[in-house]
Amino acid sequence: MRPTPVNDRRAERARRTRPAVVVLHQVCPDNRYCLREIYAGMEEEGVPFGVEEAQTGSAAELAHAAAHASTLDVGVGVDAAGNICVHHAKLPPDAPALTGPPQHARSLGHNAARLVTGIPFKNVAQ
Known about the structure:
The protein has helices spanning about 10-15, 30-45, 60-70, 105-115, and strands at about 20-25, 50-55, 75-80, 85-90, 100. By secondary structure, the chain is α/β, with parallel strands linked by helices.
């Protein structure tokens, strides 16, 4: 029986150049406003982010994949319906840190950045 290979995340991080929160989103014209608001929320908190397109997946799946691709261990996923999910790489795939509708995009962007910096989340307006 062969041993299971170990995934060395530090070596993966060393190959990347700039620390950033990764935003994975499905390509959809309706998501432009939502994405702009997420970016604005993260910029207002002063946390860098990178954007990548995805073909399929739910917001939670995209966020989990984005968190593992991020050097800061935080990812944001936006599905075709505009649903938003914020995930941390150390959380289980089915337990995201935050989820919300497109109307709360800016607050979720703020809170994704705050997850990185370790300060309390902003309240999401209902």
